[in-house]
Amino acid sequence: MESKVSVIGGGTAGLVTARKLASFGLETTVYDQKKILGEPVRASGILSIRGLEKIGIGYAKAVTNTLYGATIHAGGESLKVESDDAVAHVLDRKQLNDICHDEAVAEGAEVILGRRITGKELDGMAANGIVVGADGAVSEVARHFGMGRIKRYVLTYKAEYNIRNDNRRIVDLFFDNKISKGLFGWMCPNSEDILEVGIGIDSSSGNAMSAFSKFISRKPISEVLGNSKRISEGASMIPLSRRKSIVNAKQRVLLVGDAAGQVKPSTGGGIIYGSSAGLMAANAIKDYYADGKKLGAYDKMYRKNFMLDTWMHSMVRGFYSGVGDKGMGLTLKVLENLRFGNFLGRYGDMDMPTQIIRNFLDAKGNGQEISPG
Questions:
Q1: Does 253 map to a domain?
Q2: Domain for residue 262, yes or no?
Q3: For residue 235, is it within any domain?
Q4: Which one, of 199, 177, 176, lies nearest residue 187 by Cα?
Q5: Rounded to two decimals, what is the model's pTM?
Q6: What is the domain count for the chain?
Q7: Rounded CA gap, 227 and 21, in Å?
Q8: pLDDT for the residue numbered 362
Q9: CATH code of the domain containing 298
Q10: Domain extent for 295
Q11: What's the pLDDT band for 293 if we cut at 50, 70, 90?
């Protein structure tokens, strides 16, 4: 068998996977049904700096703003979590995809756009090589090869407004179970003069556009927006559960990114998890071709590195979804009194909750001051 890999889907996770595969000298082809990658832009682009460095994208030209923390609002209370160091970048998602495309091509991958792959073609690709499904939450690859359903989704709706952002260091998160049950609303300064406002809801909770309209009518969002001009808007669907299988070893098919359900359940963010998984999938494919190792190693690798953190994110989401607005407000008040925001600002990690514990223990072991203040 020739060392061929067909990557279905040219989003960030698919292109990161293709870049790594091509760097191993594997014949790698990416197919995407869009004629222009990254359009339309429906998802937000707040990504942790640690995560970006981990997946190795040369993202610098896509950065539109840098964030140092967040203010969490619920039940009339607020908790500010801020770090002295930058924790996340806001990225232009279209430009990020272009960078990922160029990096994959530079390593030797071929990218074919405007091409929808049929089931018959998928069977041929799997018979003569390996297929990587990176084709989003409603994955045709997963459906065709019987890899299970994603049972829960988050529906989001967001818009960008032309507003001067004098304080661009902080993103605001709003928890309100009457409007955004299952997730939250947000206001994020995307750049000096663009503010993104968005909301996410559990797919069983109703219509995201309707929830968004209610959200922007409430204070303080309406006060901030005023009569500002809306310059873009769009909806998206994010998986909240993992598929039954992310590897079909018999037919040589692997899933990465949203196609696999590899997202943070607490926020719906998927680029860091999905791209990290793509790198693991690429390593498993290389070992399969080079040494005859099992493709199932990819699933084991992902579980080892991400399942505990995914579970912790699920616990956080379950808490704020079930405690109610008053309970969430009381929780924030208690955490504020305990100066927990300072603790998270010092030791927090927005992708990997287990890293908070490691950071804390490392600081304690090194004799650093570990009081909340």
A1: yes
A2: yes
A3: no
A4: 199
A5: 0.90
A6: 1
A7: 49
A8: 52
A9: 3.50.50.60
A10: 4-61+86-150+243-315
A11: very high
Q: What is the pLDDT of residue 40?
A: 65
pLDDT digits (tens, 9 = 90+) for 44-99: 689 999 999 999 999 999 999 999 999 999 999 999 998 889 999 999 999 999 99
pLDDT of 187-199, one tens digit each? Answer: 999 999 999 999 9
Three-state SS for the chain is CCCEEEEECCCHHHHHHHHHHHHCCCEEEEEECCCCCCCCCCCCCEEEHHHHHHHCCCCHHHEEEEECEEEEEECCEEEEEECCCCCEEEECHHHHHHHHHHHHHHCCCEEEECCCCCHHHHHHHHHCCEEEECCCCCCHHHHHCCCCCCCCEEEEEEEEEECCCCCCCEEEEEECCCCCCCCCEEEEECCCCEEEEEEEEECCCCCHHHHHHHHHCCCCHHHHHCCCEEEEEEEEEEECCCCCCCEECCCCEEECHHHCCCCCCCCCCCHHHHHHHHHHHHHHHHHHHHHCCCCCHHHHHHHHHHHHHHHHHHHHHHHHHHCHHHHHHHHHHHHHHCCHHHHHHHHCCCCCHHHHHHHHHHHHHCCCCCCCC
| Residue 197 resides in a domain | no
